[in-house]
Design goal:
CATH superfamily of one domain: Ribosomal protein L13
CATH architecture of one domain: Alpha-Beta Complex
Strand order of the largest sheet: 5-2-1-6
Strand content: 15-25%
Structural class: alpha/beta
Oligomer: single chain
CATH topology of one domain: Ribosomal Protein L13p, Chain: A
Length: 143
């Protein structure tokens, strides 16, 4: 039996729109990361970017379960000595919900040049409108 290996020039990409209203942040991010990676296709190849484009709208209405709004922190380092910064997810979702969703998806992708190529296919918007109508994206229902 032969193993199918996809080639980058033969990949057919679709555009999907995901409405994040009322969805849990982690579950949304894991499903979107899987689509960006191409794991939902029968032509999935681990070393080739076979994923589709994903547009996420209404990120300001994404939710966290339990007490994560108060207890969970987004942590990053400035690069300076003692530069560890923490932001509570309650304030992060109020001020920059699109960034919170983007980072959740980015951190679920591979940490190499292939992952950096995959994240460029993600488009995130706070409100219900996006500027990619020309690509005729399909509505994607994530369960």
């Amino acid at each position: 039996m032969k193993t199918y290996m996809a080639h980058a020039q033969n990949v057919v990409r679709k555009w999907y729109v995901v409405d994040a209203e009322g969805m849990v942040l982690g579950r949304l991010a894991s499903k979107v990361a899987s689509i960006l990676r191409g794991k939902n296709k029968p032509t999935f190849t681990p070393n080739v970017d076979t994923g589709d484009f994903v547009i996420i709208v209404n990120t300001d209405k994404v939710v966290l379960t339990g007490k994560k709004l108060e207890k969970k922190y987004y942590k990053y380092h400035t690069g300076h000595i003692g530069g560890l910064k923490e932001i509570q997810y309650k304030t992060l979702l109020n001020e920059k919900s699109d960034f919170a969703v983007y980072e959740a998806v980015r951190r679920m992708l591979p940490k190499n040049r292939l992952g950096r190529q995959m994240i460029t296919k993600l488009k995130v918007f706070k409100g219900p409108d996006h500027n990619h109508q020309a690509q005729k994206p399909e509505e994607l229902k994530l369960v």
